[in-house]
């Protein structure tokens, strides 16, 4: 099948997908392809390697999922034909769930492979002959070395969120897995950012790739983000004030440490909020229960560390609250990108103390714009040092200075007043 990769399809039917996949696309509620889908599916169906730079929540799972499923359907044979690597168990499970929907009217099966649970069931799934394996690098390599996972027939491989795999130390493991794959294959690599190590990996693994660049270091336009200068002792009160607002329907609250996550979730529950904590010391069954409860709205607030929250893709998150600032400037965009997904609007608020000024300067340099400062009645902090205040910018036609962050537009959904609880 030959397709024009430069064509902007008007709908999924223009891709000439297998008819059973078209039914899955309809079941998923997809009508018009999103940008990452419009710019990758055609080239992927042509067999090109893909380098996609895009944030999570942009629709890339459906993009590579449809590519893999289509050519498996058209050249059906036995054995593992595609491998998808993801940095976290949660992301692997989400990819598997989306493949289930898209492949609903086919007989294509996938196996989920990740650590934290016994190998026995995963080995049993592999013995049933799935066409696609979705997994995390550590457990995938374990099963390869034990002889339970044969990748000799793989024709397509996807590396999803490659920058997160690098952050978690998985790149050496990924390279060993790639060495076990046939040289003749199609490779698709997706990443929100392109640090040097991921660039080297792309250069090694991809041959003349079709490049799609949608990612930006700046937060998505759908996210209304700002910060509040606040003393450490007032954080809890301000958090509850924001959670009590009528527009705060579902929130993810980020903290710096596992201990802090656990303590804050317990405090919120005692205060009457439906909150659950997600941190690295939980067992896989506990993590699954927490995420299932948040997705099914048994909980309205998810308190999480960066590591535990990587790969989380939950629709309808109205607010992200950085109770503690991220460890790195890059993590700022990752964190607040958990809201404003699928072209919906979201709100992000970061609590900044007097100890966080170095992070703030570095983050504003990275995103190329000042983060809007907000003042909430009842939570006033000491004035910010003049050296750290963003320089006023004038609108193109002169007149009053415009406020930074969000393109200078006045915020529409931010709290302007009110009193603390």
Report a brief summary of the structure.
With 421 residues, this protein is α/β, with parallel strands linked by helices. The chain folds into 2 domains: 12-213, Rossmann fold (3-Layer(aba) Sandwich), CATH 3.40.50; 223-383 and 394-408, P-loop containing nucleotide triphosphate hydrolases (Rossmann fold), CATH 3.40.50.300.
Topology:
Elements: H1 19-27, H2 35-45, E1 50-53, H3 60-74, E2 82-85, H4 89-102, E3 110-113, H5 119-127, E4 132-135, H6 137-145, E5 156-159, H7 162-167, H8 171-179, E6 186-191, H9 196-205, E7 210-213, E8 223-229, H10 235-243, E9 251-254, H11 258-270, E10 275-278, H12 284-295, E11 301-304, H13 306-309, E12 319-322, H14 329-336, E13 346-352, H15 357-367, E14 372-373, E15 393-394, E16 401-402
Parallel strand pairs: 1-6, 1-7, 2-4, 2-5, 3-4, 5-6, 8-13, 8-14, 9-11, 9-12, 10-11, 12-13
Antiparallel strand pairs: 15-16
Helix pairs in contact: 2-3, 3-4, 6-8, 14-15
């Amino acid at each position: 099948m030959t397709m024009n990769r430069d064509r902007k399809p008007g709908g999924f039917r223009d891709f000439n997908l297998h008819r059973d996949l078209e039914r899955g696309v309809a079941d998923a509620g997809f009508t018009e392809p999103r940008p990452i889908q419009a710019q990758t599916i055609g080239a992927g169906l042509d067999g090109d390697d893909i380098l996609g730079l895009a944030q999570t929540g942009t629709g890339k799972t459906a993009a590579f999922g449809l590519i893999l499923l289509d050519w498996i359907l058209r050249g059906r044979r036995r054995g593992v034909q595609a491998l998808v690597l993801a940095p976290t168990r949660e992301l692997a499970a989400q990819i598997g769930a989306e493949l289930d929907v898209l492949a609903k009217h086919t007989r294509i099966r996938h196996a989920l492979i990740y650590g934290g649970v016994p190998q026995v069931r995963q080995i049993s799934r592999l013995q049933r002959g799935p066409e696609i394996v979705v997994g995390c690098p550590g457990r995938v390599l374990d099963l390869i070395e034990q002889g339970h996972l044969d990748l000799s027939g793989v024709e397509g491989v996807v590396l999803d969120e490659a920058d997160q795999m690098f952050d978690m130390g998985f790149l050496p493991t990924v390279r060993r897995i790639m060495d076990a794959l046939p040289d003749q294959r199609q490779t698709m690599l997706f990443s929100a950012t392109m640090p040097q190590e991921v660039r080297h990996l792309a250069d090694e693994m991809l041959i003349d790739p079709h490049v799609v660049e949608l990612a930006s270091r700046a937060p998505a336009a759908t996210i209304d983000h700002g910060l509040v200068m606040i003393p450490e002792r007032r954080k809890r009160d301000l958090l509850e004030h924001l959670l009590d607002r009528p527009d705060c329907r579902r929130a993810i609250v980020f903290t710096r440490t596992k201990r802090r996550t656990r303590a804050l979730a317990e405090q919120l529950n005692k205060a009457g909020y439906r909150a659950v904590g997600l941190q690295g010391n939980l067992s896989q069954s506990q993590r699954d229960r927490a995420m299932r409860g948040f997705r099914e709205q048994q909980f309205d607030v998810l308190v999480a560390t960066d590591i535990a929250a990587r790969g989380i893709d939950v629709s309808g998150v109205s607010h992200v609250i950085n109770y503690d600032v991220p460890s790195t400037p890059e993590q700022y965009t990752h964190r607040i990108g958990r809201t404003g997904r699928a072209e919906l609007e979201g709100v992000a608020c970061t609590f900044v103390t007097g100890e966080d000024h170095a992070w703030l300067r570095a983050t504003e340099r990275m995103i190329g714009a000042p983060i809007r400062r907000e003042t909430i009645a009842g939570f006033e902090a000491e004035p910010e040092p003049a050296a750290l205040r963003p320089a006023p910018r004038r609108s193109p036609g002169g007149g009053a200075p415009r406020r930074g962050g969000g393109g200078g537009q006045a915020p529409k959904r931010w709290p302007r007043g009110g009193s603390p609880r």
